[in-house]
Design a protein that fits this description.
6 helices; single chain; mainly beta; ten-stranded mixed sheet; 45% strand; twelve-stranded antiparallel sheet; 566 residues
Length: 566
């Protein structure tokens, strides 16, 4: 296994060296210094952050330039995700750069996008270009920074991708000299995980917090004695900081050694789109699901195939001698700023509690798994679980729902590939409006529901789920709500603004028409806002009739009509 570490370190050295030679070729996309609000491979809900977030002085509309010569290969517009985005291919460098959450494109791109939107009669478009259509020089104006899509505030989401493999590469590699940093990572929490049926810690087989204090240099000091026996793992909650900002960033490099022997290393310099969802195994999913806290596990679940991780014995520590084991976790950022977490674990023989398997169904991580009970069927594909579990099932009746409430395991378990879930509806409700039924997930911690949906078939609802949990069936019979915003000021502002919401299944389709013809309403998903800017080429002065139709995911429809002059 040492050979694997040597090979990985050698590979990383070659990769970093080759990338560094390209570093001077990528320019700053803005006319002001780069500061980051988000880093590469930061931990996010169900995915790693694929780029860096560049601050834009807390505002929008800053001119944005191509960082290298190439050609615009793709432009996309969506109400969510990256919002307005530009993709530039750089053949000479074997790279693709991505610019997301824009306010607007340059004039030429904007005109092409609008024509395609009217041609498709759809706000969302995804346009690909051949190399000779949009050649670009380094420094060319391509658009303006914004806050579109799923952005949480004005910034530029900037990515660098390997043109051949499609892998995301840490953009900061190219901009280290532009973004100084002397801050080391900071530890916020530690956990210890006895392996079920194989390990114990302080007489307990459940995961536990490791208490510590910070010394004057913000380094953790662990005073309590940790006694363990058998197989255990460790987890760490940590953030990185950068000079001049109050933002938190992910940890570039994590190294675990036991008695000076390397057991685990993650080095997040690149990853593929297929790997991004492995974050649900890389971190303690239960902690994130219940508390929205990320703990990184310094051990590897058998179903986790993240390529930037290397390990010996999957990072598990085997405590099989009554002695002191010297543990060291080292956290390092891209600049070499380092924090160390030393701890001692005392090997002490303890009776190991066997797995609690009574009344549970064993589901193996590498296998096809199926489960059925009264009114429920579950099918989990091969290699969907990250670890084997003893699944516990429970059911209950809640008057407000249209089926039994089915609890598929008593703690959240992520699935890498969606599972098929079918729930039978109470037969007294299936005579009419079956299209309005859908599966919802009930969050155990707060009882809130989230819409899953599904299709009705012969008394059952079939849907895909991405985690085990508590599910039932409800009905969405309420149409979306349309709320015009200050219609009396539309003429003055030369813009129509309308809020569209749906309280359960969510908005699926909207269509605006003026005088019976399609009108392009831009959709800001996060604010549930659609806007139409008066278009001199398509809207002439005079009397006009607006009609807006909004449909939710269960076919419920609302219509709004309004007459105005311009």
């Amino acid at each position: 296994m040492n050979k694997i570490f040597v090979a990985i370190v050698a590979f990383l050295s070659v990769t970093m060296s080759s990338i560094q030679t390209e570093a001077q070729r990528l320019a700053n996309p803005f006319d002001f210094p780069i500061q980051l609000s988000g880093g590469f491979c930061d931990l996010r809900a169900h995915h790693y952050h694929a780029g860096i977030d560049i601050r834009t002085k807390s505002g929008e509309g800053h001119a944005m330039h191509a960082v290298q010569k190439g050609y615009i290969s793709r432009v996309s517009v969506r109400p969510w995700e990256y919002g307005l985005a530009i993709y530039i291919t750089h053949p000479d460098d074997n790279l693709i750069t991505v610019y997301g959450h824009l306010q607007k494109f340059n004039h030429r791109i904007a005109e092409i996008v609008k024509e395609k939107q009217y041609e498709n009669e759809n706000y969302s478009v995804d346009i690909k270009f051949e190399p000779d259509i949009f050649p670009i020089k380094q420094g060319d104006l391509i658009g303006y920074s914004g806050n579109s899509g799923s952005s949480g505030g004005p910034h530029l989401h900037f990515e660098v991708r390997d043109m051949q493999t499609g892998e995301w590469i840490d953009p900061l590699i190219f901009y280290k000299s532009d973004v100084p940093d002397t801050c080391k990572p900071l530890v916020r929490g530690l956990k210890i995980y006895p392996t079920e049926g194989k390990g114990m810690v302080n007489g307990n087989n459940k995961k536990q917090n490791i208490e510590f204090k910070l010394d004057k240099n913000d380094q953790p000091v662990i005073a309590a004695t940790i006694e363990a026996w058998g197989e255990i793992g460790l987890g760490i909650r940590a953030v990185d900081r950068m000079d001049g900002t109050g933002f938190s960033y992910g940890i570039k490099d994590i190294l675990l050694t036991v008695d000076s022997v390397e057991m685990f290393r993650s080095h997040a310099d690149r990853f593929s789109p297929e790997e991004s969802k492995y974050i649900n195994s890389y971190t303690d999913y239960e902690e994130w699901s219940d508390k929205r806290i990320f703990y990184i596990k310094t051990f590897v679940d058998p179903g986790n195939r993240t390529q930037f991780i290397a390990s010996r014995n999957s990072g598990k520590i085997n405590i099989n001698e009554e002695r002191i084991y010297n543990i060291l976790i080292t956290l390092t950022d891209i600049y070499g700023n380092t924090s160390k977490v030393p701890m001692k674990i005392k090997g002490k023989k303890q009776d190991i509690t066997p797995p609690d398997a009574i009344g549970a169904k064993l589901m193996r991580w590498y296998d096809y798994n199926a489960f059925s009970a009264k009114g429920v069927r579950l099918t989990i594909p091969l290699n969907s679980l990250y670890n084997s579990i003893h699944m516990r099932y429970d059911t209950s009746f809640v008057k407000e729902y249209f089926s039994l409430v089915h609890t598929l395991h008593n703690s959240p378990v992520p699935l890498h590939t969606p599972a098929q879930l079918s729930i039978r509806i109470d037969s007294s409700f299936t005579s009419t409006n079956t299209d309005q039924f859908g599966i919802v997930r009930i969050t155990n911690s707060n009882g809130k529901t989230s819409w899953i949906g599904g299709a009705y078939h012969d008394g059952w609802i079939d849907a895909e789920i991405s985690e085990l949990g508590t599910y039932t069936v409800t009905r969405d019979s309420a149409p979306p709500v349309i709320r015009p915003i200050d219609p009396g000021k539309w003429r003055e502002k030369k813009k129509i603004s309308i809020r569209i919401t749906d309280d359960l299944s969510g908005v699926s389709i909207y269509r605006g028409e003026i005088d019976g013809k399609y009108a392009l309403f831009e959709y800001d998903g996060k604010n549930a806002l659609i806007t139409y800017t008066f278009d001199n080429e398509r809207l002439h002065p005079g009397y006009h009739r607006l009609k807006l139709t909004v449909t939710d995911r269960r076919g419920n429809k609302s219509t709004y009509e309004y007459s105005f002059t311009w």
